[in-house]
Amino acid sequence: MTTPNFLSVDTDSVEPEAGAPAPDRLISGDPKFRTWNVEERDGGLYAGIWESTPGKWRIVYDEWEFCHILSGVSVISEDGGEARTVRAGDSFVLRPGFKGSWEVLETTRKEYVIKL
């Protein structure tokens, strides 16, 4: 029985979108993304699963994002701030205005909720 107001965050329920960092943001490697966007609501709300293979690229956040790392290891560095290593079990928020880099050391998969 399905409930219209209950949605499982499940990679089997959606085809993944393939992607990669924009060429002008790539720092090293050849990272490839897969995104399973299971929820997209009016007003700019998104939720799902994202995965990246190893590599490093620049990030600039105009949106608010909650992340929960499911697997892998990445290093997120803020310009002028410290580098933070995140791995399975870690949760964090990236706020609008965050600028820096994301480096995937081991293929990383995260759950996310984004609010534009």
What does this structure look like?
With 116 residues, the chain is an all-beta fold. It has one domain (16-115): Jelly Rolls. It is built from no helices and nine strands. Strands 1, 2, 3, 4, 5, 6, 7, 8 and 9 form a nine-stranded antiparallel beta sheet that branches. Strand 3 and strand 4 (45-52) form a beta hairpin. The mean pLDDT is 96.
Topology:
Elements: E1 17-19, E2 26-29, E3 33-41, E4 45-52, E5 55-60, E6 64-78, E7 83-87, E8 91-94, E9 99-115
Antiparallel strand pairs: 1-3, 2-5, 3-4, 4-9, 5-9, 6-7, 6-8, 6-9
Total of helices: 0
CATH superfamily heading: Jelly Rolls
Tell me the strand percentage band. Answer: over 45%
The N- and C-terminal alpha carbons lie at a distance of 32 Å
- Total strands: 9
Q: How many domains is the backbone divided into? A: 1
Shape: globular
Describe the main β-sheet briefly. Answer: 9 strands, antiparallel
H/E element string? EEEEEEEEE
Q: What is the helix content?
A: under 10%
Which consecutive residue ranges, at least 5 long each, have pLDDT under 50?
none
The CATH class, by name, is: Mainly Beta
From the alpha carbons, calculate the radius of gyration and give it in angstroms: 14 Å
Instruction: Tell me the structural class.
Output: mainly beta
CATH fold topology: Jelly Rolls
Report the average pLDDT across residues.
96
Give the second-level CATH assignment, the architecture. Sandwich
